[in-house]
Amino acid sequence: MIFENTKAFAQKLDSQDSLRKYRNEFYFPKVNDKEVIYFTGNSLGLQPKSAKNYVDEIMNDWANLAVEGHFYAEKPWWDYQERFAEPLSKIVGAKPLEVTVMNTLTVNLHLLMVSFYRPTKSRFKIICEEKAFPSDQYMFQSQVNFHGFKPEDVIVEVKRREGEHNIRTEDIIAKINEVGDELALVLIGGVNYYTGQVFDMKTITAAGHKVGAYVGWDLAHAAGNIKLKLHDWNVDFAAWCSYKYMNSGPGNASGCFVHEKHHNNPDLPRFAGWWGHNKERRFKMEPTFDPIQGADGWQISNLPVLSLAPYLASVEMFAEIGMDALIEKRDQITAYLEFILHEIDKEISSNFEIITPSNPAERACQLSVFLHGEGRSLFDYLMKNGVITDWREPNVIRLAPVPLYCSFEDMYNFGQILKKGILEK
Ligand SMILES: Cc1ncc(COP(=O)(O)O)c(C=O)c1O
Q: What CATH number is associated with residue 181?
């Protein structure tokens, strides 16, 4: 499609947008009495208007039923997470038994590392991406220390080539083959939080398995954003947070995937708790742990249903829409944003550079823009003028045109504000 940098053209794209009614399903913050242009759904998604009803339902059941709510609530609390299995499995490309919701992201990655990172004297190395999200770096270091190894002997980062912003798949594969028999685990962010690069999870997973390692993914920026086929790609495990593209609310629960090939493996250690115990027998209070066959077997504590409630509201919205429709709009709106940025660049001397891959197959709903020079003041200008974006050191703003609630007109208006901001500097 040939794009135009005009309001009329952006409005035409909005009128043809099959998802346009969903914009009204979300609350938008206001700046200067106007709804903002919201680019930070990759950090915290907007609140779906339906979320409150889901929370109220639990508050009411708690008021009216108290402890009886575990079994007699509108949606009984004791197995509340099972309502996620079907819709969530479609979002991440899994079988319903392979997914669960529990805890928070870093906690779950730690728990999954308990099962899938069991270093020996000869096989102990972990491959991750250069500049992984800090929480993942701290997690690796602490896990490695916990097992009595030294991080510098164990953690192998795959680096970007000199002068390049993104990591090449071929370099990851080469590193996997180089580490070979010493490799215990590959664990990478499926979509890089900083650049928005989407990794080739299928190829990397297969390469890790070929040398005998487990392969897991941190899907914080992937769940609800890209097409995932975790089961078919034979991924061992994955976890994601739900407060970004999945709009579940600040700091909210994490989703987990454990491939079915691991469900019946009695040799796989895990940290256990009563909510992972055989459901039919849980309240018999037996002394020996008998795990549920499925990802639910990794549950530990009884469910924080008040926080799962808004997550369920969001997951049901995703189920109604389907990932294919979301991805179709995502690609179009991201391409339109990229076009607008290039147009501004042509019109004025902008001094910025998009560091996200230009190939649509290697990116999703994010463009990271490196601002050469006075970046921070431009960021402040955008925020004051109703464009909510975020700042990442040393000089990057990340723009996520979330297809569920961003409009093409937002992209046009953003371009105009950006241009004014650059000219005023
Ligand atoms: C890629 C990635 N990994 C891990 C985390 C940490 O998530 P949590 O604080 O829910 O553990 C984040 C948070 O933004 C993230 O973006």
A: 3.40.640.10
